[in-house]
Design goal:
Radius of gyration: 28 Å
Structural class: alpha+beta
Strand order of the largest sheet: 16-23-22-19-20
Distance between the termini: 82 Å
Helix content: 10-25%
Number of strands: 23
Number of domains: 4
Shape: globular
Number of helices: 12
Strand content: 15-25%
């Protein structure tokens, strides 16, 4: 196993800021013997060593040019002989709309925001706060017979691995958490957070960023149907998990009723094998990040790859046993990344074209002197991994109508048209499939007509050739409802008036589309629902 630093790398430097006073927590002078690789000889030093070990593991998994400062201490927390609080960690601040943010008007955890910007947005403030229960050690009034296990290994016996708990809680502080009030579905300062953009409700076929407060509140208890929608974590989950998936995506913990501190911002406890970020610590939990760092990559963190061979440092020294600071560990002329892509090991053959598998193992039809035989923008090796034919070029699709951004009245018949061609299969226009992110499948063909619900729709046209290569194109269209018809039932009536009255009294919230239909005054709207809209709606009801 390789575990050493490289001055050229951008490994995240996670700094533990000891907030404990003399004689307590990290400064407890109680003598103790080294355990499980932890060389400390006092209780306080061993505790601090474990915190620093967790910081090293996370620091080797993510990139940041900005130090991540963790305010840490151990204090007596709530505990009985049968149950107790282990500890907690979270982001101290959140930021939005900073340079490099991929999502606008969206809250990011401060450590991630700093990493994206490349400088400290709040240099006088720490990034994560972490408090853990000191009463668990040598105290039969707190979890009788149980102590913190302070070793670095995975042999806690009857103890609780502090290292595993820290890896879990640091994960929350780095981004495995959100800022929605799960009891009401309300957003922090009425803005989305980065976690919600990939929290997906299968029943509604929408992310939390697309739901209103009422829908989010119900989604938080949609057991078995609330999943993570990020590509990286789900690709890894598909390879790792036996249970804990729904529709091919990793399930999130969504019990009914909501469990504060546990619901949503954990993987589902139904997962097999056990995962680090389940709501409760599993006995014998491995000190590994499993799917945790994959999820953080989905929200914007980048993976540390010190030698640039395409493999993360974490994967190299935890899983593959290759040197994360050598591009070619076995010296066979192939990068470590090429070796893994080939056949899951480190090949001895020649890879003249650098396409990711040795020439003697090239699939039929590929050229050993061309890294991308079919010139489709994906190397032969990447296509082999993805299950597509490296000798077959992907089709091309052209959207013809309507223009992206078009708006249609409610009930309008909307014509969708496109063309598609493929170098091997020719004209594939008749095989184009159409779908809406709101209404689902719409039909198949080069030209279709459809009626869409009142909403803003992402319309996607997809075509797949006979070899399985696919391409898609997306446009946005909006269907505007009848002004004043808040309920979107085709008529303006007293029910709409009552909805607007309740919204103005703060008794319920209107969705974005409902707000657009309620915004009647002044003419053309002013993007808010107010008393002027109420009077205008009353006027519609009383006019002949």
């Amino acid at each position: 196993m390789w575990l050493f630093a490289s001055p050229a790398s951008l490994a995240a430097n996670i700094v533990i800021n000891n907030l404990d006073g003399p004689g307590e927590g990290f400064n407890d002078p109680t003598p103790t013997l080294p355990v499980g690789g932890n060389p400390g000889t006092t209780l306080g030093q061993q505790r601090l060593n474990v915190f620093q070990r967790a910081a090293e593991i996370w620091g080797g998994a993510i990139e940041s040019a900005v130090p991540i400062v963790v305010d840490a201490n151990l204090d007596p927390l709530e505990c009985t002989t049968l149950s107790g609080t282990l500890g907690a960690a979270g982001a101290i601040e959140v930021y939005r709309d900073f340079p490099g943010a991929t999502l606008s008007n969206t809250w990011y955890h401060v450590a991630l925001a700093n990493a994206v910007v490349g400088s400290d947005l709040s240099p006088t403030t720490s990034d994560i706060v972490a408090t853990f229960n000191s009463d668990i050690d040598n105290n039969n009034s707190c979890l009788t017979g149980t102590n913190w296990y302070l070793g670095y290994d995975e042999n806690p016996g009857a103890g609780i691995s502090l290292l595993a708990v820290l890896l879990h809680e640091f994960g929350h502080g780095l981004g495995f958490s959100g800022f929605v009030d799960l009891e009401t579905g309300r957003l922090l300062d009425n803005r989305q957070d980065v976690f919600s953009h990939a929290t997906f409700d299968i029943s509604r076929n929408r992310t939390w960023a697309q739901l209103n407060n009422y829908q989010r509140r119900n989604s938080a208890t949609n057991t078995g149907n609330l999943v993570w929608n990020g590509t990286g974590a789900n690709e890894a989950a598909g390879e790792l998990l036996v249970t804990g998936l729904a529709a091919g995506k990793a399930r999130l913990f969504a019990p009914n009723p909501v469990e504060p501190g546990s619901s949503v911002y954990h993987y589902d406890s139904a997962a097999t094998p056990n995962l680090l970020m389940e709501p409760s610590l599993n006995f014998g939990q491995a000190n590994e990040l499993d799917l945790t760092d994959e999820l953080l990559l989905d929200i914007g963190w980048t993976r540390l790859d010190s030698d640039g061979d395409g493999l993360s440092d974490t994967d190299e020294f935890e899983t593959l046993n290759t040197n994360p600071f050598s591009v070619d560990t076995d010296g066979d002329g192939l990068t470590d990344g090429d070796g893994v892509v080939t056949v899951g090991n480190y090949p001895d053959g020649v890879d003249a074209d650098g396409n990711g598998f040795v020439d003697g193992e090239n699939q039929a039809g590929t050229d050993p002197n061309e890294a991308d035989t079919d010139a489709d923008g994906f190397s032969d090796g990447d296509e082999l991994l993805a299950g597509t034919d490296p000798a077959d070029a992907a089709p091309e699709i052209t959207l013809l109508n309507p223009v992206s951004g078009s708006t249609f009245p409610i009930g309008a018949s909307i014509g969708l048209s496109a063309s598609a061609t493929d170098p091997e299969d020719g004209d594939l226009s008749a095989a184009i499939t159409w779908s809406s992110d709101i209404d689902g499948p719409l039909g198949t063909g080069a030209l279709i007509s459809t009626n869409l619900s009142t909403n803003s729709h992402a319309i996607t046209a997809t075509v797949v050739d006979t070899a399985g290569a696919s391409v898609l194109a997306t446009i946005t269209v909006t269907v505007a409802g009848l002004p004043g018809d808040i309920n979107d039932d085709g008529v303006v009536d007293v029910a709409d008036l009552l909805r607007l009255q309740r919204a103005l009294l703060g008794l319920e919230s209107l969705s974005t589309m409902e707000l657009q239909r309620a915004d009647l005054h002044p003419a053309g709207g002013n993007e808010i629902a107010d008393s002027g809209d109420l009077l205008a709606l009353q006027g519609l009801l009383t006019s002949p």
